[in-house]
Amino acid sequence: MPKLTVEGFGVFEVPGGKRLVLALEDQARVDQLHACGGFARCTTCRVEFIAGEPAAMTEAEKNVLQEKGLTSRPGLRLSCQILCDHDMSVRAISRQSGTARKDCGPRPADAIEPPPVWTGA
User: Fold this and answer.
1) CATH number of domain containing 76
2) Nearest CA to 104 among 34, 13, 9, 15?
3) Mean pLDDT, the chain, integer
4) What is the pTM of this model?
């Protein structure tokens, strides 16, 4: 099982292949935002990688990060588009606490949406 380290929350074993956004919510109990429901549209599920950033990303993630002007920040990724398939360490930078949002957003599906087309980061 991959280990997920979340700064300020601890280290958690995560089922291999689980979406990072769901691992943050289920295993780490982080109030991680995902306003669009995990479809790579809103960027509210952003995390900052400390270690173990995946080399590949989905076309959907790449496109939305470019559209929102977020590509200049190294390590900034969308947790809804990442699978936990190796050890990684992240900083949860987009949380419900401190916002006026009533909830984190609709729960994302177990599988990455839209269906992933993988590319290099």
Assistant:
1) 3.10.20.30
2) 34
3) 96
4) 0.96
